[in-house]
Structure formats: structure tokens, C-alpha cells
Amino acid sequence: GMKPTLIPTGLKAYCPEDEFFILVNRSSGPKKGYVMANSIGIIDADYYGNDNNEGEIFFQLVNFGLTDKVIKKGERLGQGIFLPYLLADDEAAPLAKRTGGFGSSGR
């Protein structure tokens, strides 16, 4: 079956505490036979200093074509958008220290 593959970008993005960064599909992705497995990727402010991946941004892609794909250096895989966010009252005090990365929100 199809399984997601993490594609490194070599890029990092710093977010202030009240912002996050989302990764989204480009319209050309499906035409090329791949899409982001997680629909969108959310990168929180704590991801930048993550010891596990040094804050490097990865795209999680699924190839739904019949043949393997070659991703070339510099190929545009998606788009990134910086957005501000607010916390709900019950989220103001964190439950535990977070270390950013795939699946790190714990909620």
C-alpha cells in the first residue's frame, strides 16, 4: 500500500510564540501524482529549536501514482503560510513541556 514519505527541505522557519506556520499542498502536486499525507502540516513556534531535527521543515507526501517519483532539489512541493493564533482559556496553561515534531501536540 501507499505510505507517507518525509521529504527534507533544508529550510527552517522561526515563528514568534503567537504564530504558527502551515504547510499546504500546491495545486501541481496531484498533477504530479503526490499529495501531502496529513492534508496540512502545522509547525508551532517550538519546532524551530527541536533537537530531534534541528527545526528542519519536512513535507509528508504520499505518492498515489503507479511508479516511483523522483523529487529534484529545488522542486516546489508545497506552500508555507504564517498565521497568528489565540489560545482558548483552558489551554493557557500547558499540560506538559512540548518538543516540536510530527505528532507532538499530544491532544
Radius of gyration: 15 Å
Mean pLDDT: 84
Q: Considering DSSP H and I runs of 4 or more, what fraction of the residues is helical?
A: under 10%
> How many strand units?
6
Structural class label: mainly beta
Q: Major β-sheet, in short? A: 3 strands, antiparallel
**N-end to C-end Cα span:** 28 Å
- Provide the spatial order of strands within the biggest beta sheet: 1-5-3
Low-confidence stretches: none
Strand content: 25-35%
- Give me the strand/helix succession: EEHEEEE
Summed up, the helix count is: 1
* Inertia-based shape: elongated
Secondary-structure blueprint:
Blueprint: E1 5-8, E2 19-25, H1 28-32, E3 34-36, E4 40-43, E5 58-63, E6 78-84
Antiparallel strand pairs: 1-5, 2-4, 2-6, 3-5
Descriptive notes:
This protein has 107 residues and is mainly beta. Helices cover 5% and strands 29% of the residues. The protein has one helix and six strands, in the order ββαββββ. The chain has a three-stranded antiparallel beta sheet with strand order 1-5-3. The protein has a three-stranded antiparallel beta sheet with strand order 4-2-6, with no helix packed on it. The protein is elongated. The protein starts with a strand and ends in a 23-residue tail after the last strand. The relative contact order is 0.31.
Can you describe this structure in just a few lines?
The protein is mainly beta. About 5% of the residues lie in helices and about 30% in strands.
